[in-house]
Specification:
This protein has 126 residues and is mainly alpha-helical. It has one domain: Arc Repressor Mutant, subunit A. Strands 1-3-2 form a 3-stranded antiparallel sheet. Strand 2 and strand 3 form a beta hairpin. The chain is elongated, with a radius of gyration of 17 Å. This is Winged helix-turn-helix transcriptional regulator.
Amino acid sequence: MTEPPLRADMFDELCPSDLSPVRFGDKWAGMIIRCLERGPRRFSELRVPLRRVTAKVLTQSLRSLERDGLILRTAHAGSVQRVEYELTPLGRSMLEPMNAACAWSVEHWDELLEAREAATPNRMTH
């Protein structure tokens, strides 16, 4: 059974993942893991919700996750090469801590936002 397509708005511009001080791998790793949560995906499918990342950086992030044993890259033979990425059992084990970090970020969203705004210098010119 084929999974439904990934939504383009899966990661809102103001998503708590950008505000959370908790990181899983590089900037994009947590979002990639979320994209693979329901099953294997092709590179072009990942590009839909991860449209803000360049192809080069997405490739680097995927390679890093593969190197760390969190995802598996499978190249399918055929007249047109098709590559899929999927979570390994180790990668799948990241979902529970990620859920906890996301819940914490949502719970503390206002505090995190206030701290971020307080630390951002006023850029208004006189």
